Q: What sequence folds into this?
């Protein structure tokens, strides 16, 4: 199975594409889509949509794993990130991907075994589980890969329960 993990943001949107073969995870591509702060918000959202659409068309993932929003004390920032998240959901939906959503707590639990793990612990597990030489940068990229791995674990459990 090929999974596209997404860490939504309007300045930096992290993505990670992994393949799952048996119980092993393999990195396919990862990085971030960035937008210029001088752009107006509709242009930034269009740029995010176009970037994700290009990735979906190029790599043909079967499913998407999108991190749910963590409540931010700054309402304006939370709304803007929510708009970027909506664009990511739309791009995945138009690409016919099954969309799965996970909270930061669920992602940390899946990777580290502890829902309150710190960022460094999650990044270390991403690096280790994907056999990478270094932690992916920026942090948004590592978070997107973590979301993809989380879904990989979850999908694997679902398949076992279904008898696959």
A:
């Amino acid at each position: 199975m090929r999974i596209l993990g997404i860490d939504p943001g309007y300045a930096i949107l992290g993505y990670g594409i992994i393949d799952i073969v048996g119980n092993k995870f393999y990195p396919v591509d990862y990085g971030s889509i960035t937008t210029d702060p001088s752009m107006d918000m509709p242009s930034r959202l269009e740029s995010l949509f176009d970037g994700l659409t290009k990735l979906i068309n190029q790599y043909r993932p079967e499913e998407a794993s999108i991190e749910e929003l963590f409540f931010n004390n700054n309402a304006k920032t939370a709304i803007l990130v929510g708009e970027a998240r909506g664009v990511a959901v739309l791009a995945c939906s138009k690409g016919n991907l099954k969309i799965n959503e996970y909270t930061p707590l669920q992602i940390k639990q899946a990777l580290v075994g502890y829902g309150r793990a710190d960022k460094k612990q999650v990044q270390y597990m991403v690096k280790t589980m994907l056999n990478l030489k270094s932690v992916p940068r920026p942090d948004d990229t590592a978070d997107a890969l973590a979301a993809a791995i989380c879904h990989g674990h979850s999908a694997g459990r679902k398949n076992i329960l279904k008898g696959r």
User: Anything to note?
Assistant: The two ends are 13 Å apart (CA to CA). The helical segments are 41-59, 75-94, 104-112, 119-129, 139-162.
